[in-house]
Here is the input.
Amino acid sequence: MEDVSDPPFRALCKKHGADLMYTEFISSEGLIRDAAKSVQKLDIYEYERPVGIQVFGSQIDSMIEATKVIEKTNPDIIDINYGCPVKKVACKGAGAGILQDIPKMVKMTAEIVKTTKLPVTVKTRLGWDDKSKFIVEVAERLQDVGIEAISIHGRTRKQMYKGEADWSLIRDVKNNPRMHIPVFGNGDVDSPEKALFCKNEYGVDGVMIGRASIGYPWIFNEIKHFLNTNRHLEGPTLKERVAVCREHLEMSVKWKGESLGIVEMRRHYGNYFRGISHFKPYRMKLVTSMDLNEIKETLYEIEENKSLFLI
Here is the structure.
């Protein structure tokens, strides 16, 4: 969720029902070098709580020093990212790359737990590839060195985001009689029905939503309502979609500056207006324009166009 789960995005997710949120993952090397982009990612706000700051890195010493920097910003949780499959991260031994060296993964986790008084959680995957799905053992070892919750994405690093997420091993982690910390599942939960199925079928303590929330923060309240009532909340109208999209754009520009704020909003438009008839011409305007006023005018045109409707 790099360049996605920033403060503007998290504000909207919180507003629409997210219970616990994490920052974009932050490079440990960037933090200890005081790199501007990494330091900016430490920005958290009171209305977000509980909120965790997520860190990644391949060097234990650097992760320890980064943990000390993070602790000063007073998050509720420090989360270690052992799940990012992106080549530039994993091939340096960080993110999911550390799944090729489980003893190092356990040692790094233990040192971070020792360094901070804050709760430490872990986000990881089933394994590096199909031959190394050791997540049941790995989760137990991480628990034994002091983590307080684990989130597991139901794919290996080799899979990236291809194919369907396999939650069966997540269930095995949860059903391990030696496990006593919360176990959260992640991967392909994109509807209230899927969330309910995963909760009932795999027994997880919670569900982590990532890609399905991009451009659609309503998903959190929709899932919670369905879990409580077995009924669907009515989805957002076109006018509501435009209003939240506009709010997101304005917050993004305010926090990142006009140029970057405009560019990084582009990944959200497709989901904000998914299922809208005859939308393609408007989408092209939104993802190509660098003029803030022109983008706002396009959003106004979408709102006022009576021929646009949800399919």
Q: What stands out?
A: The chain has a mean pLDDT of 93. The beta strands are 21-22, 26-27, 51-56, 77-82, 120-125, 149-153, 183-186, 206-208.
